[in-house]
């Protein structure tokens, strides 16, 4: 494989499992030095880093509970030190805002705390992570936000999650306009139903699986690697003319 991201640096939040892990592994395979964040899944983060290094890539993990925006300056101080030691510079080429938490719970089940926690991770954290990254982002850099098809077609079973993902889509457009003069592209990738541990319970229900597959043009759940492929394209030089877009990667769910 050609190293389309050779000598680049990347930060992938929530990179210890699922879609985030697949993105981190793909960016590293393309040659980037990848930092991942994790909250509670230290073992998962260590496994991800080990897998990347075994494949010949470079990665490291940093702990950060992104429910608390106050941890973000400290996260970037750690990131600066690691990149300076490994690359001789604190410059960041690729930022992937992927970290998330479970969005299940309808209107009747919602509480102010659940609302705050959901928006803290899915909307507030990306905003302040980008703010902290501004002085570090290289000219011609990339910001890629992991959104959801629910941000475009809200689901009543996850109204708070749907709202938060709509917010990240809006932020993507606003940032693209602000950062365009620096040739920094800003896009969002909106997955549909992807085979991850966050929806394992759904996939244990045969009737739900049948309904989801029937509503998907390609007739199946997606794989994390398929989302990672879209992110890798946007992060590469081939994606340099794409910005301010929410790219749905759902296999044609509910067309």
Automatic annotation (TrEMBL):
Keyword line: Oxidoreductase
SUPFAM superfamilies, per database record:
NAD(P)-binding Rossmann-fold domains
Q: What is this protein called?
A: SDR family NAD(P)-dependent oxidoreductase
MF terms per GO, please? oxidoreductase activity
Q: Pfam families from the xrefs?
A: adh_short_C2
Give the enzyme's main class according to its UniProt record, as a single word: oxidoreductase
Instruction: Write down the Gene3D superfamilies for this protein, in alphabetical order.
Output: NAD(P)-binding Rossmann-like Domain (3.40.50.720)
- Tell me the protein family, please: Belongs to the short-chain dehydrogenases/reductases (SDR) family.
């Amino acid at each position: 494989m050609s190293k389309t991201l050779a000598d680049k640096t990347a930060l992938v939040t929530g990179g210890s499992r699922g879609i985030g892990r697949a993105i981190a592994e793909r960016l590293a395979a393309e040659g980037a030095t990848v930092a991942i964040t994790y909250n509670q899944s230290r073992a998962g983060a260590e496994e991800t880093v080990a897998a990347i290094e075994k494949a010949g890539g470079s990665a490291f993990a940093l702990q950060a509970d992104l429910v608390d925006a106050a941890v973000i300056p400290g996260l970037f101080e750690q990131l600066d030190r690691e990149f300076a030691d490994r690359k001789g510079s604190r410059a960041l080429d690729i930022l992937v805002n992927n970290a998330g938490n479970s969005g299940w719970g309808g209107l009747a089940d919602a509480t102010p705390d659940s609302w705050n926690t959901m928006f803290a991770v899915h909307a507030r954290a990306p905003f302040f992570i980008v703010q902290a990254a501004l002085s570090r982002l290289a000219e011609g850099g990339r910001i890629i936000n992991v959104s959801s098809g629910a941000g475009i077609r809200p689901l009543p079973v996850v109204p708070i999650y749907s709202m938060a993902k709509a917010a990240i889509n809006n932020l993507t457009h606003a940032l693209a306009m602000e950062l365009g003069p620096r040739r920094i592209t800003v896009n969002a990738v909106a997955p549909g139903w992807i085979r991850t541990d966050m929806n394992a319970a759904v996939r244990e229900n045969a009737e739900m699986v049948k309904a989801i597959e029937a509503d998907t043009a390609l007739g199946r759940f997606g794989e994390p690697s398929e989302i990672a492929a879209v992110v890798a394209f946007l992060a590469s030089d081939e994606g340099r003319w794409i910005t301010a877009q929410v790219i749905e990667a759902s296999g044609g769910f509910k067309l």
